[in-house]
Amino acid sequence: MTCFRFLSAALILTLAGCSIGPKYQPPVPHAPVVYKESPTQFKETDGWKVAQPSDAMLRGKWWEIYEDPELNALEEQLNIDNQNIKQFFENFMQARALVREARSQYFPTVGTTPSFNRSASSANLGASRGATSGSSGTATFAGSQSTLHALPLDISWAPDLWGKVRKTVQENQYAAQLSAADLENERLTEQASLASFFFEIRGQDALQRVLDDTVEADKKSLELTQALYDTGIDDQISVVQAQTALESAQAAAINLGIARAQFEHAIALLIGKPASEFSIPVRPMTTAPPPIPIAVPSQLLERRPDIAAAERNMAAANAQIGIAYAAYYPSLTLSASGGFESSTLHQLFAWPSRFWSIGGSLSETLFDAGLRRATVDQFIATYNAAVASYRESVLAGFQQVEDNLASVRILAQQIQRQQQAVASAETYLKLELGRYETGIDPYVDVVIAQTTLLANQQALISAQVTQMTASVQLIAALGGGWDKSQLPTASQVTQKPTKAQSAIEH
Questions:
Q1: Rounded to whole angstroms, how far apart are CA atoms 321 and 176?
Q2: Which of 431, 165, 474, 495 has its CA nearest to residue 322?
Q3: Residue 48 pLDDT grade (very low, low, confident, very high; cuts 50, 70, 90)
Q4: Residue 240: which residues within 8 A CB-CB, separation 6 or more?
Q5: What is the spatial distance between Cα 128 and Cα 154, in angstroms, rounded to a whole number?
Q6: What is the pLDDT of residues 121-151, one digit of tens each?
Q7: Omega before residue 53 within 30° of 0, cis
Q8: 394 near 421, Cβ under 8 Å?
Q9: Which of 29, 432, 436, 471 is most buried, judging by how many CB atoms fall within 10 Å of its CB?
Q10: Which of 285, 287, 289, 288 minimizes the C-alpha distance to 202?
């Protein structure tokens, strides 16, 4: 009972102990009222527009906004089989384990060392028949034998008087939340990469269709020039020019296979499949980016997982300052031991066989040549660096949103003009073919018209692909469908993992 009362009093003292170190107050970054590059800020809004109402937000599976079943299926596979995401998940599980390790310091350490000892003293202890004093203080007779059974119980506890353990737990909880945000940021990065690669493939398929059509048109032109040459109407140079144009278009069509294959292999890696066993059917891109809800700039701070990670990093750095300050104060260690010991086993648990001891020690550093002050300064500098990193993450977030808003908006206008250029080039080629067939112009003018049309068609598809990938990057810059409310709480990161989560992978 005495031991119990002593430990209870120490527990009350711990619970009433103070927590030292600066109180955490995250900085409030400046957020603009509106996005400067939003189409809503421009009089000319032809082309791409943002979703209405203006306060709408992306939620959940953001890629479904593109209404492409094949993309949806690939994204679902990525969320399950992507190995980078799995690595970040295991990092998160490790961070959660560190929280539980830190919390274990709240409680006493209890141990036991049951023992059995059978010994015999030397017969030559000086007075061979007299008694001598043994190492335990008991009388030992020369040549005697003894047996000792012991069942001790040892308890040791260092109460958290100054909040060092509490700050350590908080630091690890913040670090676990940071790891959770890193996991979501990696997930978003991988999702955006897959969508970008997917639209790149669709763009390659569109280019392939254009070049295949060009090859077929060039074949017909070659047949025409050959027929005119055979009848003596045209000369051989027109045939050579037509042959050259055809072979150039065929070479360009073959070359497209390299980029498409590489994008396809990249997607296979993202969804955790061997590149040799994965393929995507050919389907040219025919859609434009959908309207994307961009909400208001102030919401960006709650929607980007990298900004959430930077904020949790600040909180963890602040807790480290408190841990460093705790080194200025004395540490108390309480210990108690008790149990049973007897020379005979059947008397081991008899009441007279009991023994116990209880005590405590207080330790305080009197001189450390400035070590503690330097440690505090170190973690203050770490915290200040974390604040700067957080502010930089916020600024980078706004920059990325503005960059991609400008890209999607301006590319929409460029695509409109480029479509007009393609239509004009088609008319140009049609007219030039007519002039060639009637003998007004040489075939080289037809080649120039063909080259002009192909260049404009390629530029149009390139702009369309760039706009689609920029829309993906805009969604990623907005945080996808994530928001800070999805970040696990302190109690959630403290919970034990499930059996599935803690299973060893094979």
A1: 18
A2: 165
A3: confident
A4: none
A5: 38
A6: 777 765 544 455 544 445 556 667 888 888 8
A7: yes
A8: no
A9: 471
A10: 285
Task: Give a yes or no: residue 72 inside a domain.
Answer: yes
CA dist 273 to 70, 193, 268, 349, Å? 16, 16, 5, 64
Q: Taking the chain, what is the end-to-end CA distance rounded to the nearest angstrom?
A: 51
d(CA 141, CA 139): 7
Q: Which residues contact 480 (CB under 8 A, 6 or more apart)?
A: 58, 62, 188, 191, 192
What is the arithmetic mean of pLDDT over 77-86? Answer: 93
Q: How far are the Cα atoms of 226, 296, 386, 393 from residue 29, in angstroms, in the given order?
A: 71, 15, 14, 11
Using CA atoms, how far apart are residues 4 and 465, in angstroms rounded to an integer?
A: 73
Q: What is the pLDDT of residue 134?
A: 45
Q: How many residues does the chain have?
A: 506
**3-state SS string for 299-337:** HHHHHCHHHHHHHHHHHHHHHHHHHHHHCCCCEEEEEEE
Mean pLDDT on 44-51: 75
Question: What is the C-alpha to C-alpha distance for residues 96 and 102, in angstroms, rounded to an integer?
Answer: 10
d(CA 393, CA 306): 7
CATH number at residue 320: 1.20.1600.10
- Please report whether residue 124 resides in a domain: no
Residue 6 pLDDT greater than 70, yes or no: no
Rounded distance, CA 182 to CA 307, Å? Answer: 10
- Listed in sequence order, the DSSP H helices in 131-235 are 164-230
Angle subtended by helix axes 236-270 and 443-477, to nearest 10: 10
Task: Compute the C-alpha angle 462/65/308, nearest 5°.
Answer: 100
* Domain count of the fold of the chain: 1
Residue whose C-alpha is closest to residue 494's, from 86, 95, 164, 89: 95
pLDDT on residue 41: 86
31 inside domain: yes
Distance CA 355, CA 175 (A): 45
Task: Extract the tokens encoding 316.
Answer: 């963890």
The identity of residue 21, as a single letter, is G
Domain extent at residue 188:
20-106+163-329+370-494
Amino acid of residue 127: A
Establish if 339 belongs to a structural domain: no
Whole-number Å distance between alpha carbons of 168 and 158: 14
- One DSSP character per residue, 432-447 reads HHHHHHTTSS-HHHHH
Say if residues 299 and 57 touch (Cβ distance below 8 Å): yes
Do the beta carbons of residue 340 and residue 349 sit within 8 Å?
yes
> How many whole angstroms separate alpha carbon 273 and alpha carbon 196?
18
